[in-house]
Amino acid sequence: MANVKVKLFANLREIAQSSSLALAGDTVKDVLLSLTEQYPPLNELIFEAGEDVKLCGYINVFLNGNNIKHMEGLATILNDNDELGVFPPVSGG
After folding, report:
1. Among candidates 40, 89, 19, 70, which has minimal Cα distance to 28?
2. Nearest 5 degrees, angle CA 54-CA 10-CA 1?
3. Could you tell me which of 85, 81, 84, 86 has the C-alpha nearest to residue 1?
4. What confidence score (pLDDT) does residue 51 get?
5. Which pLDDT tens digit goes with each residue over 22-71?
6. Paired residues of 4 in beta bridges
7. In sequence order, which residues have a C-beta less than 8 Å from that of residue 92 and are 6 or more positions away?
8. Is the pTM of this model over 0.85?
9. CA within 20 to 30 Å of 15's CA: 25, 34, 40, 43, which one?
10. ∠ CA(32), CA(38), CA(42), 5° rounding?
């Protein structure tokens, strides 16, 4: 299992009461499931409801600065010291 740094932004950070966490997992999916197990209120913000584990359409996850949508999605393999950024939709003026 890879040890990765997970950075949370906006309301995700407020719910977890932390901007950065250290988690372990083999894939992006593993780490995000671990995150939502530790912080259950994040589950409905990150994943769509249903049997299949699927990201909400408005959530963006970046691995070392690259959007996982352009990689293998939730199946993207992680390595030690990788950094995941989880971004909810943000608006502002």
Report:
1. 70
2. 50
3. 81
4. 86
5. 999 999 999 999 999 999 999 999 999 988 999 999 999 999 999 999 99
6. 23
7. none
8. yes
9. 25
10. 60
Strands (E), the chain: 2-8, 20-25, 60-63, 66-67, 83-87
User: Of 14, 58, 19, 15, which Cα lies nearest the Cα of 6?
Assistant: 19
Mean pLDDT, range 75-83, rounded to an integer: 98
**Structure-token match 């997970």, residue found:** 6
| Tokens read off for 72 | 């293998």
Mean pLDDT (the chain, rounded): 95
Nearest to 60 by CA among 37, 85, 40, 92: 85
Dist. CA 11–CA 30, nearest whole Å: 21
Residue 74 · residue 86 · CB < 8 Å? no
Q: How many CB atoms lie within 10 A of CB 59?
A: 16
